[in-house]
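Protocol step 4 of 5: obtain the predicted structure for the target chain.
Materials: sequence only (see below). No template structures provided, no constraints applied. The aim of this step is simply to have a reference model before the mutagenesis design in step 5. Sequence pasted as it appears in the construct record:
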Amino acid sequence: MQITDDMPKYEQAYFTLINRLKSDRYPVGSRMPTEGDLAKQFDMSRVTIRHALDMLVKDGYVESRRGSGYTVLTLSPASDTCLISFTDAMLRAGHEPSSKLISITNLDPNTSTKDLIPEVLEASHVTRVTRVRIVNGKPRMLVITYAPSNLIQNATPEDFPEEGPGQSILRILSKRFKLNWSAACEDISPVSVDKDVAALLNMKAGEPILKLGCTAFNELGKPVFHEEVYRNDTVSFNLSKQTKVQRSLDQEIKL
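Step 4 output (structure tokens):
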């Protein structure tokens, strides 16, 4: 976002802080500078800085706790459950996430690989990226990401770091490949793990596992990527949605 002098000061501060977050100046789990320190840095009043920080809280980037200031929650906030960064969630919980790239494969709808293309992307040339997500040295998830090949041209292993906040697929797609999305749909179901997935996750073939499917769409309603995630643990999430009446859903899915 380009910051201009004609913007209200709180918006200038807000977007400057967003840029700092995106550049990893404030890591996930770290505390933001105090209102007083930011007011001095920006040469603005504390009221203006508090307005900017409150916007960050509302957008899901940071949280505010009495006596503790503002703590960075995520660098990739999203209202859709499947678009919340797993990397950020693990870092925030004090774990050490990492990734292992298994393969980058181009799938052609006009060849025998057409059967490997998800239905939502059928008839498209697709690039498939397969990674294992590891937490504290143990494999936790197999993540298979599909995107139209024209949207992630010339993808190489160097585009998929194995450590740090940059390993988040959401940031890779948005920062490296400039993909934009505005909505997503999600499906969660228990399945029996096949031998290939079992080998990558240190499981036995036939054991139960959660399969999560997520498709992200741009503002025109066209899919920009689809993801299949196999998890060998419990998935817990809390969703809330604002409508004319406040509604909330607490849901826990266990095998």
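Step 4 remarks: Confidence is low (pLDDT under 50) at residues 239-255. Strands lie at 62-65, 69-72, 97-107, 126-135, 138-148, 183-192, 208-217, 223-231, 235-241, 247-253.
Proceed to step 5.
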